[in-house]
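dude i think i finally got it to work??
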Amino acid sequence: VLDSPMLLAEADHRVFGEPPRSDDARESLLDAAEGYLARALAEIPGFRPHHLLRHLVPLYAGERGARVWRRTLVERSEDGVVALRAARAAVSYVEPRRPAAVGASER
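look at this
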């Protein structure tokens, strides 16, 4: 799950029939991370943005263009909120994977 955090969102869709929500879930996560990062930088002495941002690196794992997301986040990790905003802009380069057709792996 750490290498592909959106796996659980996809599992809810496939197993329980919930509507797909991976893009909304990612956006919600990024909104929460941005708020937390801003507060942590202001309130926690010695807090380094890398402490939080490293956990977001695999957020787009397996998606075409995810390398741009990872590179932007890692290269600018000490810039704090600016790094997260730059990485969010890099999301425009990520192309979501098309879900496999149900039963496609059974062939």
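The CA atoms of residues 49 and 78 lie 6 Å apart.
im so relieved honestly
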